[in-house]
Amino acid sequence: MTKKIFSLTTLWLVLFALLNLFASGRWTIAVAAWLASIFGLRYLHIYPKRRKYLYFYLVFWLTLSIAWYGATPIFGPAHFIFMAITSLIGFIPFALDSWLAPKLRQNGRLPFIATFIFPLAATALEFLGNSSNPIGNFGAVGYSQYGMPVLTQITAVTGMSGLAFLVAWFPAVVNWVWENGFEWRRVRAGVIAFIGVLAVVIGYGVIRLATAPEIGSQDSVPVASFTLTEIHIGELNQLLEEEGIDAFRQETQSVHEQYLTMTETAIDDGAEIILWPELAIAGVAEDVQAVIARGQALAQESGVYVSMPTFIFFPDSDQRDENVLYVAGPTGDIVIKHVKYGGNLLEGTLKGDGEIATIETEHGNLSGIICWDTNYPDIVRQVGAQDTNILLSPAKEWEGINPMHAEMAAFRAIENGVSVIRQADEGQSIVVDGYGRTLATGEGLAEDGNYLRVDVPTSSPTTLYPVIGDVVGFLSVVGLVVLGAYALIQGKRQKDTAPQPPQLLREDLVRTYSPPGCPQTVGQKNGLQSVCESCGVALPTQDQS
Predict the structure, then answer these.
(1) Separation CA 545–CA 542 (nearest Å)
(2) Beta strand 419-422 with 390-392: parallel, antiparallel or unpaired?
(3) Residues of the chain scoring pLDDT < 70
(4) Three-class SS of residue 440?
(5) Strand partners for 366
(6) N or C terminus of the chain with fewer C-beta within 10 Å?
(7) Residue 507: per-residue pLDDT
(8) DSSP secondary structure letters along 187-248
């Protein structure tokens, strides 16, 4: 019997490991995110020994470390330390489910309410972690469903938390059915309830997409975005240190000229909004200000919006580098100045205040953020609340997060009903509408096709998420506390009311025995070892006597 349990539990753990490699990270497959946790939960539910938690955690850590290697902003051995911490946090919902669910058993069977422990814990943890994580909600469960547009539409109502809950609820329901022996009469109501919720979510997605305006049928504005060269801050710092300020300025100024020249070409091509990638205008303050002034002149001369992502170095100074997006309007004025607020801890740059400006234009409302800013849905929902129609998001990527980081921008588009223009250096550039539908993509440099000329809709769908915020995440925290307390109370009640071992089954099992030196004759009952109340000597069992 022990061998059979060992082989089954090992099988479930192996299946979990294989699927977890594809549930998130660089090789994400949407269906793997639904299936992996089935076997993880099953392993923890049936393996009787406490060391199961250690085995599970090690497998969880190893598979996540492999799946995310090169995709985190931390490299080398430090990546595995970072993932050890991340895995420990991600392990919490599994541990809570394994600990609390059995306490809810009734007559030996697991009730349907137990299926809520895992999704509540997973959603609550993601909700609480988003605000404190220096890289935002990067790696959130919902991003695994990018290729399932009928599911991702639910984020227009619930944000990412609704999708996270649904994906985590499925394996919990499957395990509940499994625990009940797949007996249809016992699980019918619960299964129908889950299918009903899933059907509502899918139905909403189908209707939202079916009623969306056809691509190209709405009023739009011609937008041009392009990447002309790869910028690496590390290489620029090295150039500054080894060859000095003159060589540094010569290198950066040559890049500035390229972007200004291509902007003139884009204007001639009919573009009314122009966007460069993050770090396009990197340099010392004097040179950056000169480019901004020339961009303002181009905008005023042609009556367009020129969006200029800048990165200002302050050599020989303790002042933090600044990563700032400037947008010049048709009047020549700077209408948007946005300081990057995401990823500053890792970049060492000045941190923005998290306030996102929205301006009214003849092309609808316009806002701008920078790269990692997009990973903070609770902050980005400002654009939805301000009825933004077009959101600019210049980015700088690296190979390990391509194209997943671009795909994440589509979720901000759906949540806020806003078209997102994300022009990237060293990664995928993407333009999506307020339904998350891809209008254009590009990769590499302009000469490789990373020059996007797109007619972007100037009107947007209305969404509920910017109004209610992450109410699902908040309710998940409350629900987990309430359900956890209920499970603990039920577990104590079960322990208090558990039947005690019988003291006397048959009269003929009573034997008498006098411990040596004890004047009292004591009855030995039921073959169970006890201690003489008079002298404290252990009494033999029925078999021993």
Answers:
(1) 5
(2) parallel
(3) 1-6, 131, 498-545
(4) strand
(5) 359, 390
(6) N
(7) 41
(8) HHHHHHHHHHHHHHHHHHHHHHHHTSPPTT-S-EEEEEEE--S---HHHHHHHHHHH-HHHH
In contact, 373 and 342? CB cutoff 8 Å:
yes
Extract the tokens encoding 437.
């539908």
The amino acid occupying position 14 is V
Please choose, from the candidates 315, 425, 432, 319, the residue with its C-alpha nearest in 3D space to the C-alpha of residue 370. Answer: 425
CA–CA dist 410, 433 (Å, integer):
8
Output the pLDDT for position 531.
Answer: 43
Counted residue by residue, the chain has a size of 545
Q: What values do phi and psi take at 392, rounded to 5? A: -90, 135
Task: Please give the torsion angle defined by the CA atoms of residues 342, 309, 382 and 437, in that order, rounded to the nearest 10 degrees.
Answer: -100
What proportions of the chain, in percent to the nearest 5, are helix, strand and coil?
50, 15, 30
What's the rounded Cα separation, in Å, for the pair 62 and 105? Answer: 33
Integer Cα distance of 129 and 161 in angstroms: 12
Any idea of the CA torsion for 477, 128, 83, 12, to the nearest 10 degrees? Answer: 20
Q: What is the pTM of this model?
A: 0.88
Bridge partners (DSSP) listed for residue 337: 326
Q: Are 304 and 296 in contact (CB under 8 A)?
A: no
Note the Cα 319 to chain centre separation in Å.
33
CA distance 353 to 356: 9
Residue 501: the pLDDT is 56
Question: What is the arrangement of strands in the sheet containing 358-361, beginning at the earlier edge strand?
Answer: 358-361, 364-368, 390-392, 419-422, 428-432, 438-443
Residue 19: helix, strand or coil by DSSP? helix
* Residue located via tokens 């699980």: 187
Tell me how far apart the alpha carbons of residues 68 and 115 are, in angstroms, rounded to a whole number.
Answer: 29
270: tokens are: 């009919």
CA distance 441 to 214: 18
Inter-CA distances, 120 with 105, 183, 192, 250, 448, Å: 18, 25, 20, 55, 46
Please choose, from the candidates 426, 417, 424, the residue with its C-alpha nearest in 3D space to the C-alpha of residue 440.
424
What separation, in Å, do the N-terminal and C-terminal C-alpha atoms of the chain show?
A: 32
Residue 499 is predicted with a pLDDT of 64
pLDDT value, residue 346: 85
